[in-house]
C-alpha cells in the first residue's frame, strides 16, 4: 500500500513548518535557552533514527527494487548503477553543503565572536536547499514503495528539521539579519522540501523507472545528513556529556519500536 497525494502533502507541510519553528525559537529568549540545552540530544536522536531508516528500510528497498526483472539488466550483477547513484547522492550533498558552502554546519552561530558575511550565510543556505529538496524526494519515493516506509522516512526527516531551522536562523542572525529575514529564509527552505516531494510525486507517478533512480540518490543524501552532518555534531558535544552519545542509541531504539508497530501490530 502506498501513500496518497494528500498524505504526502501533509508530511511536506509538517516538516516545512518544523523548519520555520526551528528558526523562530531563536527569538523568545527563554524558549531559546531551553532549546539550546536540548539541541544536542535532538540531533543525536535524529541521527540514530535516520541511520536506522537508511540501513534497515531504504537501502534494502533500493536493492530489492534494482533486483526486479525490469531493472536487473541495468543494475548488473554487483548492482553498480544503484550503488553509484547512492554514492552520487552522498557526494552531491558534500559538494553543495561543504564545498561551495564550507561554512555550513548544524549548530548555533550567534556567539558574540562569531560573525559571518551575509553572502556566506546565503551560500550555505543555498547549499542546504539541495538536501532539503531531496528530503522531500526521500519521503515521496519511500512512500510510493510502501506507506509504512514513507512514515518512517518522514519521521527521520522531521527529527532534524527543528535543528536545521535553528541553524538557518542562527546563521542569519550571525550575518546581522533579523526576524523578518529568518522567517523568509526558513519558509523558503521548508517550501523546497514540499517542492521536492511534489515534483517526485508527479514525475514518479508518470515515469515508472524514476523511482529506481531517485531512491538510491535520496538514500545517499539521507546517509550523508545522518553520518556526516548529525553524527560529527553529536560527537563534538558528547565529549562533555556521554548522555548525548547515548541518545543516538535511543534514536535507534525509537526506530525499532516504531518499525515493529508499523510492520507487525498495525497489519493485524
Characteristic key phrases:
82% helix, 268 residues, mainly alpha
Describe the structure in your own words:
With 268 residues, the protein is mainly alpha-helical. It has one domain (5-265). Helices cover 82% and strands 0% of the residues. It has helices spanning 5-24, 29-66, 72-75, 80-99, 118-145, 147-174, 179-206, 210-238, 242-265. The chain is globular, with a radius of gyration of 18 Å. 48% of the residues are buried. The mean pLDDT is 84.
Order of helices and strands: HHHHHHHHH
Our estimate of the beta-strand percent is under 5%
Secondary-structure class: mainly alpha
Q: How large, in whole angstroms, is the Cα Rg?
A: 18 Å
* Gross morphology: globular
| Low-confidence spans | none
The chain-level mean pLDDT equals: 84
Distance between the termini: 15 Å
Largest sheet: none
- How many distinct folded domains? 1
Find the count of extended strands (DSSP E, 2+ residues).
Answer: 0
Q: What is the share of helical residues?
A: over 70%
- Put simply, the count of helices is 9
Amino acid at each position: 500500500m502506498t501513500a496518497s497525494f494528500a498524505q504526502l502533502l501533509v508530511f511536506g507541510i509538517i516538516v516545512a513548518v518544523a523548519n520555520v519553528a526551528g528558526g523562530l525559537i531563536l527569538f523568545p529568549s527563554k524558549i531559546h535557552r531551553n532549546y539550546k540545552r536540548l539541541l544536542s540530544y535532538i540531533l543525536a536522536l535524529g541521527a540514530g533514527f535516520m541511520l536506522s531508516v537508511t540501513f534497515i528500510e531504504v537501502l534494502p528497498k533500493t536493492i530489492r527494487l534494482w533486483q526486479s526483472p525490469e531493472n536487473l539488466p541495468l543494475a548488473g550483477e554487483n548492482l553498480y548503477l544503484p550503488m553509484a547513484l547512492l554514492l552520487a547522492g552522498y557526494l552531491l550533498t558534500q559538494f553543495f553543503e561543504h564545498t561551495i558552502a564550507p561554512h555550513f554546519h548544524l549548530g548555533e552561530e550567534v556567539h558574540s565572536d562569531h560573525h559571518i558575511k551575509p553572502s556566506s550565510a546565503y551560500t550555505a543556505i543555498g547549499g542546504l536547499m539541495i538536501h532539503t529538496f531531496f528530503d522531500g524526494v526521500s519521503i515521496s519515493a519511500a512512500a510510493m514503495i510502501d506507506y509504512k516506509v514513507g512514515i518512517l522516512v518522514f519521521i527521520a526527516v522531521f527529527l532534524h528539521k527543528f535543528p536545521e531551522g535553528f541553524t538557518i536562523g542562527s546563521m542569519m542572525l550571525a550575518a546581522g539579519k533579523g526576524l523578518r529575514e529568518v522567517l523568509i529564509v526558513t519558509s523558503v527552505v521548508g517550501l523546497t522540501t514540499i517542492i521536492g516531494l511534489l515534483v517526485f510525486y508527479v514525475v514518479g507517478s508518470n515515469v515508472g523507472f524514476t523511482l529506481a533512480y531517485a531512491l538510491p540518490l535520496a538514500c545517499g543524501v539521507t546517509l550523508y545528513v545522518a553520518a556526516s552532518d548529525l553524527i560529527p555534531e553529536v560527537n563534538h558535544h558528547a565529549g562533555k556529556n556521554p548522555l548525548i552519545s547515548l541518545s543516538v542509541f535511543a534514536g535507534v531504539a525509537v526506530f525499532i519500536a516504531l518499525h515493529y508497530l508499523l510492520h507487525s501490530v498495525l497489519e493485524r
